[in-house]
Every structure is written in structure tokens, then in C-alpha cells.
Design a protein that fits this description.
rod-shaped; 3 helices; Bloc1s5; 138 residues; mainly alpha
């Protein structure tokens, strides 16, 4: 489900998790985490750095930025929809022009048939019928 920027609901990760959850994350067992206890980064090695939890308030803009980066780089729906609209517009215009040319050619063919071919056919038909009538009467 996509949300507009102003409709983005607040994720539960934007508010700090309960203290019991923090205690479970750091020690693996349920319990209460004291306010003064710090979570140490296993990579830092110094032991005095405080690690931000996933639910800290500073990570909310990161989630928004990741969402924007995803929508710009990986979500191609707006671009594809624009290409589809352009293709349909071009197709309809070309189809309209093609149908117009077909109708003009058909109109020219009908005028040519009415003006040139039909009078010739009438003359040939009357001539042949007169000849047949003369032969049959003799």
C-alpha cells in the first residue's frame, strides 16, 4: 500500500519500544532495563559508545528518506503509467490518421467508379444487349 507523503502513518518504530522489549533485546531474557544502563555496540570495542535503538526518534527521518529513495529509484509505476498514456495517445492519433486516409481512399474510389467506370459499363452492357437482341430476333 502506498501513502502520499502527508498521509504516511506513524510507524510503531518511530516511538521508543517498551523497556521490557529493550531488556529482552540486550540480555535475551525478559526484565526491566534501568534508565542508566547503556547498550554497547559489539563492533565498537571501546564500550563507552551509546547505540541508538531501532525505535529512536532520530530514525524516523531515515525511514522517510529510505521510502523516498525507494519510490524514486525502484518504483517505476509513475514512469510506466506516463509511457502508457503517451503510447495510447500516439496510437489513437495514428489510428485516427490511418482511418482518415482509408476513408479518403474509399471516397476517391467511389467517385471514380461513379464518374468513369459505371458509364463505361453501361455503354458496353447496352451494346452487348443490343447485339444479343439482334441475333436472337434473326
Amino acid at each position: 500500500m502506498r501513502f502520499r507523503k502527508e498521509e504516511t502513518p506513524q510507524s510503531p518504530r518511530c516511538s521508543p519500544p517498551p523497556r521490557e522489549a529493550l531488556s529482552e533485546m540486550s540480555s535475551g531474557a525478559p526484565g526491566i532495563l534501568s534508565v542508566n544502563k547503556t547498550a554497547e555496540s559489539p563492533v565498537s570495542g571501546s564500550g563507552n559508545k551509546r547505540r541508538d535503538s531501532l525505535g529512536s526518534a532520530s530514525s524516523c527521518p531515515i525511514f522517510k528518506d529510505v521510502g523516498e529513495i525507494y519510490s524514486r529509484l525502484l518504483d517505476h509505476r509513475p514512469v510506466i503509467q506516463g509511457e502508457i498514456r503517451y503510447f495510447i495517445k500516439e496510437f489513437e492519433e495514428k489510428r485516427g490518421l490511418r482511418e482518415l486516409r482509408v476513408l479518403e481512399n474509399l471516397n476517391n474510389t467511389i467517385f471514380e467508379a461513379n464518374d468513369k467506370i459505371l458509364p463505361k459499363c453501361e455503354e458496353v452492357m447496352h451494346g452487348n444487349l443490343n447485339e444479343i437482341l439482334k441475333r436472337s430476333s434473326d
